[in-house]
Every structure is written in structure tokens, then in C-alpha cells.
Design a protein that fits this description.
By secondary structure, this protein is mainly α. The chain is built from eleven helices and two strands; from the N terminus they run αααααββαααααα. It has helices at 2-21, 28-60, 86-116, 121-124, 127-150, 186-220, 226-232, 238-269, 275-287, 291-299, 301-311; strands at residues 155-159, 166-170. A two-stranded antiparallel ribbon has the order 1-2.
Amino acid sequence: MVSLAIAIILGNVITLTVFLQTRQFRTPQGYLKMSLALADMMVGMLVAPFSIYTEILLMVTSSPPAWYQGSEGVSSGGLLGPWQPCKLIGPVFAGCTFVSISTIFLMTVERSVAILKPLHKDTMVTRHRTLLLITLSWTASFLLAMAPLILSDAFTLEYNECSRMCNYTPLWKDRLPPPNGNIMLLFPVFDFTLLGGTLVVNILSFSSIRRYSRKRKLLAEGGSGGGIHNWCTHRPSFSDIKAAKTIGILTFAFTASFTPIATFVLGNVVGYQWCNFSFFAFWILTSSSCCNVIIYSVRDQRFRKGVALLFRRGPAPPPGEKS
């Protein structure tokens, strides 16, 4: 847990620093990547350390803390009950997860515009619109994360002994669920809707890239024609194609890490516990917060150059001499 938290924080701090210091990343795509890195960094700074703290507390004390599963401090639901740390950590983890999903969706849409409408990408995807969408993404994600506590008193947040994290927990146990007991289904509905939309947009983008590759091969083989000549003036750039492939890899990696937790949420709503499975599901999702910097390092030459410049320690230039 400790090494994972350190890796998440360091990786995303490096990512944010490179993006902020490199002028080339001050683009709509760069802002979206910074939003994703910020959400991942919050997981590393708040969620994972709190789990580490609770585990250490359980080892050194004889009684569990007030936020531990089954304690009196988590016996009441909604926002009106006594405050305990899980009422902060739980929504932060859920909110950051929703931010990651919505940001990956926005990144996919942004790249699809560059692939499908290369002549219109600068007018359709602007910095102002991107920043507005990022703000809406964060606001909607955290409102959704708080929805089970705001709209229902049938759920509480507690530190789960299985997942080793703060989880939403139903309070009805062996009784029939209340009318608003299915509100947790909003989580997988939101998640799978955006992930499904991301998949569809990726399919459209990669279909266009495939057609482009075929036409480029035809040109290389000596094909000619007015249609091909006109197409050449509207083709996507190589950097747009590579960025689309990188985002496709990001989408695949996040979907693979997110699917177990989505399955757990669905099972939890219908009454299954899945203790061992929940531990791996939550921590697989958490570990994905340090994957993006690895993907950027492998796929993005500008990012690698930015990291190299960040850690390069050369002699300071003499006064009056440009570096």
C-alpha cells in the first residue's frame, strides 16, 4: 500500500509538472490530461494513505476506530449522522473515479474530432470549451458520488474489512430494501454509459484511421486519382493518429482496471459480499492511478523530453547568456 501511494503521488506530480512547464501541452488535450492526473493524484494523496493509516491503527490499538465496519460511528445513514473520515474519503474516491471516466470520454471525443474532422478541430475544440467541460465533469462527478448520502438515508460509509477502503454500505441488511435503495445503481449506469460511449467513439476513430492507412498504402503503390488527391488535403495528422492510439490504450487500461469494481458494486446492490474479490477490485482500480504516466512515457516523445528536462541538472549558464 505504501509503495503504491508513493508511486501514484510521484508519477502524477511529475505528469502535472511536465504539462504545466511545457508550452506544447497547453492544449485542450493537455488540459484533459492534467485533469486526469489531478484526479489520480488525489487518490494517491487521500484514499491510499487513509487506508494505510487505518491499517496501522488497527495493528497498534485493541479497539477499531469509529469508522470501522460495524462500529457505532457508522450506524446511521445519510449526511445527518455523526461525521467520520470515511464520509470524506469515500466520496473522494468515487468522485475521482467518475472524473477519470468522464475525462477519458472527453479525451476520446476530442481526438475523434481531430481524426474525423481535422479541418474543424481548432474551431470545434477550443480551450474555453475544454475548461468548461472539465469543470462540469468535476462538479457532476462529485455530486454523483454524494448522491447516496444526499438522496437517501439507507446508506452509510464505513471502512470495510474486506476491501480495506471506505465503502458505501446499505443499512437494511436482512430487511427489504427501501424504495430508494437502488440509488447505488446510478454508479454503474453512469460508468458503463460513458465507457460504452468511449468504446463507440474509439471504434469510429480507429475505423477512420484504418481507412486512412489503406489510402496511404494505395498512394505508396502508385495509385492516383482526384478523389485521393482531395482526400490528402483533409487527412488527419500523424500526431493526431498517435494521440488517438494512446488514448485508446488509456481507455483499455482503465476499463480493465475498472470492470472488477463495477461488478462488485452491482453484486453489492443485490446483496452479495464477495470479500476477497472486493479487496482485489478496489486495489486494482487504485493501482490504475499510476498507469497513465507509464503510458505517456512509452507513447509520447514530447512527454519523455519534458521529463528529461525536468530531471536534467546541467551547469547554470553564465549571466547574460541564454540557456
